């Protein structure tokens, strides 16, 4: 297609594997620029013949379009090549028997096609087919395709110069085939490029084709080198400290191949490949330079030719670690690999290869001398002495080195030697024995498989195995109080609307209401008409209807269990009739309760929220009252056994007590509620490692990474687990994935201006003291100094009710067809509810390592290990915390961070290693002296050491910061207890009130009560102690102070009762 208009006749020549398959007939070019060749040719593919499966994998069909010029008299026809195209035969090895492609036609330089506009470039439509599949079903499913791409060699020796005789830069890798056979992949004709711009990304991979007239045809279709961050590579030189060297080396002198070689592996070869990698993880890739002498005019003997033209120099080797290909799901290795001087003994020691691959290829490369196989740099011993020209070249290179210093990797400085450049291949001798090491040379390579050698377990298989270990929990029976609650809400809504209508009636007809006796029907009808008019005019009628709508929808869903559409109109009308009758009956019940029955005073129901229970459990843990903490955790579970977070918090409590088996039961119970819950999977994996159930742990971690591939903590914990199993390859891959995710998240949040990343995102929001304060109410009501009590809201005064009220409500119900839920909150009938709160004197408290997740305002740690530590500390998984901290210590740039020392200090507090904790906090204060969490932790340390003076200073400094510490609740509690001990009762009272405002509990109100008692504010003290007793009626100290207050007030009987309760619950 699109052949230049002045071309009259063309033909197509088809070549494969160096052989011409045939020429098409001469075809005229049509006016639209197309030519129909209708040419068919074929070749035989035979495993033992010249065209094997290996050839099909890596050699394309070459098509050349040739212009046939009009011949002159008595002369032969002249032909001019116009362009070339290639057809990749790889689909034949992927199970296809036939495929059609449009191969781009690349112009031959100085041909008529070259002058065409790029958009007008031509192409050849080619159909490829086989009589039968090249591969059987077994070969297709169990075989594999190996692709090796050699990109470039960077930081090459100084002796590689473009001047002088031409050279062929080669590299070779042997791939094991079936049995003991080896299949060499030879990369030739590397291009030496001088310093300049870097190689672009992406850039096309190239075929290994010879005798090509159109350079563009070397590009493999749809195959590119895309590059990527150094940290994501699998090879060497991928650390942060190598980055500068890599950047500079890529713009310096280099050898570029950009060549891809493919190799089909039959099932036996795949088994052999896997076996070879298991036996030896390092494979050698040999590199060399071969001098290619120009054609001489005189005759030269064959021996001289072999000596001059076919010796190799700079024989080096790079070691490729192939072990990552044995990791589940891994199909590719790409990275930088250092090049060393080839030495037989060292190569054998590392790769078990007994001799060089170039020895096996010496016939193909026409190598006749044994000189190249000596260790080090190849040369003939008879010509080992340097010539005068070589000395001059040495001086020149020395000057170049002094003027242009190159960047070298760390290894490059260990053995710096000057080496000579051969000016003549007959008189060559390199003095340096380590030119590649000195130069810091490295190869960029990619090894890729079509299918992973070890397939990754499928998500469905992982889920099935998790369910085999932890069967899904059967659903709990539906709540029985749903319908009852819906009817109560409807009653409340009807009562509220009725009260509003009564108020409206009083405004309209207040003076017309009779003192006694019935109203005549005519007057009643007039009042109904006027009431309807006023309600519609003001919009109140519509408002009343909307208020009832949500309550009616709840009755339909909860009582009638109707959540789907009706199949017929008759069924729908029958349901509406039934619903209307029920709603009218319930409306009359509600109105009768409002108008004619005495309202019983509401019985206050004390029901603690889950946030309060979590706070009380945390306080009990801090006070080492583990029995009480267990009670609170179990109360949370009793309230809602389907809450996953409740089970996770209870499991964390069991880990604190080192009851790993019970913790495992809790985490598995959480996982049974939701088999896809990532935090539950991770914690199940953690406790499985603690119990040395490593096979189960691997399933849990792998499932977490599969279900949530964007979880940084999941990948990091997987890496720690694999490292524990001495599986360093998979550990490194997991860490690399976690780092890549963290880098992407930080970059995304940096661009979007979002808040900092916190490891708390790994778990569901757990109730903390800050949340408890919001839900439980800030300061509970108390008299005088403590503030007013919550006032009761009047529900409406009873009065004379006009008969039109029932009519109006009934009319409102009749006016509906289908009901749409409206999110209208029902007004809460107020009652006198007192908020909970608490704290005692100096407490012998063991502060937990995991802080309360309250503020998190400080900049979080920005490494995968510190984010994982933050997650693990919340669940008291100290074993994994130590592993993560060890990695964090090794990955520091410029010394450990404040977050590292703070986390280590918390673990030391758990072990009561106060001296080590003090050292860590000293470093943390030095790094970040304005971090409130550091000062809070230091205060806890001093408090546990009973150095109350120093603790008070640290706590006062903590609460003076603008930002709160993560565990500010416990800071208030301990600071208040210190004030009580030092008889600073006024400051103690204010501190405990701050604690009440932040997170009210029994201990905070107890502290307020004690301070008020010491200040002789008996009324306030009694109110505060009553609040404390409401929240926890088993606290002996609360009962004791209540007894003292009753004695002070002369209430002997009440004092005696309080005293008995004090003895009952235990002092």
UniProtKB/TrEMBL annotation:
One Gene Ontology cellular component: motile cilium
Disordered as annotated region, ranges: 378-406, 752-780
Key words, A-Z: Repeat, TPR repeat
TPR repeats: 644-677
Record-linked PROSITE patterns: TPR
Keyword Repeat: yes
Short name of one Pfam family: TPR_8
Alphabetized InterPro entries for the sequence: CFAP70 (IPR052628), TPR-like_helical_dom_sf (IPR011990), TPR_rpt (IPR019734)
Family annotation (SUPFAM superfamilies): TPR-like
Residue spans of biased composition, Basic and acidic residues class: 389-406
SMART domains: TPR
GO term, biological process aspect, one: cilium assembly
Name of the protein described by the UniProt record: CFA70 protein
Species: Chroicocephalus maculipennis
Gene: Cfap70
């Amino acid at each position: 297609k699109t052949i230049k208009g002045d071309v009259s006749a063309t033909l197509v020549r088809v070549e494969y594997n160096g052989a011409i398959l045939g020429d098409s007939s001469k075809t005229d070019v049509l006016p639209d620029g197309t030519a129909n060749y209708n040419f068919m040719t074929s070749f035989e593919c035979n495993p033992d013949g010249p065209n094997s499966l290996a050839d099909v994998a890596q050699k394309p069909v070459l098509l050349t379009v040739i212009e046939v010029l009009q011949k002159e008299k008595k002369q032969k026809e002249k032909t001019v090549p116009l362009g070339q195209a290639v057809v990749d035969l790889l689909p034949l090895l992927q199970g296809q028997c036939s495929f059609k492609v449009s191969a781009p036609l690349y112009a031959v330089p100085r041909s008529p096609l070259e002058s065409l506009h790029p958009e007008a470039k031509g192409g050849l439509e080619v159909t490829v087919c086989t009589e039968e599949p090249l591969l059987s079903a077994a070969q297709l499913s169990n075989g594999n395709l190996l692709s090796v791409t050699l990109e470039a060699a960077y930081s090459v020796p100084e002796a590689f110069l473009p001047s002088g005789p031409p050279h062929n830069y080669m590299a070779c890798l042997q791939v094991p085939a079936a049995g003991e056979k080896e299949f060499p992949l030879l990369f030739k004709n590397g291009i030496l490029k001088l310093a300049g711009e870097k190689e672009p990304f992406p850039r096309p991979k190239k075929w290994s084709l010879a005798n090509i007239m159109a350079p563009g045809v070397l590009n493999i279709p749809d195959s590119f080198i895309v590059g990527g961050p150094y940290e994501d590579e699998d090879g060497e030189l991928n650390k942060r400290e190598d980055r500068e060297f890599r950047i500079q080396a890529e713009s310096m002198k280099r050898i570029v191949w950009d060549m891809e070689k493919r190799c089909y592996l039959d099932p036996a070869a795949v088994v052999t490949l896997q076996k070879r990698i298991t036996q030896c993880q390092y494979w050698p890739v040999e590199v060399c330079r071969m001098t290619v002498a120009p054609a001489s005019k005189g005759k030269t003997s064959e021996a001289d030719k072999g000596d001059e033209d076919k010796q190799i120099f700079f024989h080096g080797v790079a070691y490729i670690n192939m072990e990552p290909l044995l990791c589940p799901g891994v199909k590719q290795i790409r990275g930088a690999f250092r090049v060393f001087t080839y030495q037989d003994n060292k190569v054998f020691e590392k790769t078990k290869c007994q001799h060089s691959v170039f020895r096996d290829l010496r016939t193909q490369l026409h190598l006749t001398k044994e000189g190249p196989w000596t260790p080090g740099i190849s040369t003939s011993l008879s010509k080992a002495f340097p010539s005068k020209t070589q000395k001059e070249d040495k001086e020149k290179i020395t000057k170049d080195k002094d003027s242009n210093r190159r960047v070298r990797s760390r290894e490059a400085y260990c053995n710096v030697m000057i080496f000579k450049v051969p000016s003549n291949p007959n008189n060559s001798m390199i003095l340096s024995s380590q030119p590649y090491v000195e130069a810091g040379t490295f190869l960029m390579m990619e090894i890729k498989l079509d299918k992973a050698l070890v397939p990754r377990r499928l998500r469905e298989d992982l889920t099935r195995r998790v369910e085999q270990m932890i069967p899904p929990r059967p659903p709990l029976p539906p709540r029985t109080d749903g319908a009852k609650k819906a009817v109560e809400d409807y009653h409340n809504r009807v009562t509220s609307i009725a009260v509003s209508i009564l108020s409206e009636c009083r405004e309209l007809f207040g003076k017309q209401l009779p003192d006694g006796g019935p109203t005549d029907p005519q007057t009643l009808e007039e009042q109904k008409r006027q009431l309807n008019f006023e309600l519609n005019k003001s919009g109140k009628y519509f408002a009343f209807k909307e208020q009832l709508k949500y309550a009616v929808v709840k009755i339909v869903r909860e009582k009638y269990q109707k959540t789907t559409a009706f199949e017929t109109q008759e069924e729908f009308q029958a349901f509406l009739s039934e619903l209307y009758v029920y709603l009218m009956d319930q409306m009359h019940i509600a109105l009768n309760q409002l108008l004619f029955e005495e309202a019983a005073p509401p019985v206050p129901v004390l029901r603690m929220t889950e946030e309060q229970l979590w706070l009380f459990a945390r306080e009990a843990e801090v006070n080492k009252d583990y029995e009480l903490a267990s009670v609170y955790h179990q109360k949370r579970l009793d309230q809602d056994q389907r809450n996953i977070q409740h089970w996770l918090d209870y499991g964390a409590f069991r880990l604190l007590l080192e009851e790993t088996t019970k913790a495992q039961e809790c985490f598995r119970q959480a996982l049974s509620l939701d088999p896809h819950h990532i935090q539950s999977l991770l914690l199940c994996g953690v406790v499985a490692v603690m119990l040395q159930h490593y096979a189960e742990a691997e399933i849990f971690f792998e499932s977490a990474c599969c279900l949530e591939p964007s979880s940084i903590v999941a990948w990091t914990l997987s890496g720690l687990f694999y490292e524990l199993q001495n599986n360093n390859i998979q550990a490194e891959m997991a860490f690399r994935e976690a780092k890549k995710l963290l880098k992407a998240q930080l970059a995304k949040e940096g661009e979007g201006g979002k808040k900092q990343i916190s490891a708390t995102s790994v778990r569901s929001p757990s109730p903390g003291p800050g949340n408890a304060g919001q839900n439980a109410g800030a300061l509970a009501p108390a008299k005088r100094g403590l503030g007013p009590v919550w006032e009761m809201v009047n529900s409406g005064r009873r009065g004379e009710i006009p008969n039109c009220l029932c009519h109006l409500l009934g009319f409102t119900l009749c006016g509906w067809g289908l009901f749409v839920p409206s999110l209208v909150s029902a007004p809460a009938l107020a009652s006198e509810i007192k908020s909970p709160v608490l704290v005692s004197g100096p407490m012998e408290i063991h502060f937990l390592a995991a802080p309360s997740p309250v503020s998190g305002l400080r900049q979080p740690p920005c490494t995968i290990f510190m984010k994982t530590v933050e997650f693990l500390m919340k669940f008291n998984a100290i074993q994994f915390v130590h592993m993560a901290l060890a990695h964090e210590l090794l990955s520091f740039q410029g010394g450990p961070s404040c977050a590292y020392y703070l986390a280590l200090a918390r673990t030391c507090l758990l072990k009561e290693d106060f001296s080590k904790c003090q050292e860590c906090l000293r470093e943390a204060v030095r790094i970040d002296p304005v971090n409130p969490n550091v000062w809070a932790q230091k205060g806890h340390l001093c408090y546990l050491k009973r150095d109350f003076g120093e603790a008070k200073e640290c706590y006062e400094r903590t609460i003076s910061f603008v930002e709160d510490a993560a565990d500010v609740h416990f800071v208030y509690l301990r600071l208040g207890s210190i004030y009580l001990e030092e008889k600073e009762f006024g400051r103690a009272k204010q501190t405990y009130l701050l604690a009440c405002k932040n997170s009210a509990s029994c201990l905070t109100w107890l502290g307020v009560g004690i301070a008020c008692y010491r200040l002789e504010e008996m009324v306030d003290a009694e109110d505060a102690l009553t609040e404390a007793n409401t929240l926890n009626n088993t606290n002996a100290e609360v009962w004791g102070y209540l007894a003292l207050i009753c004695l002070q007030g002369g209430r002997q009987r009440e004092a005696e009762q309080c005293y008995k309760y004090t003895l009952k619950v235990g002092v």
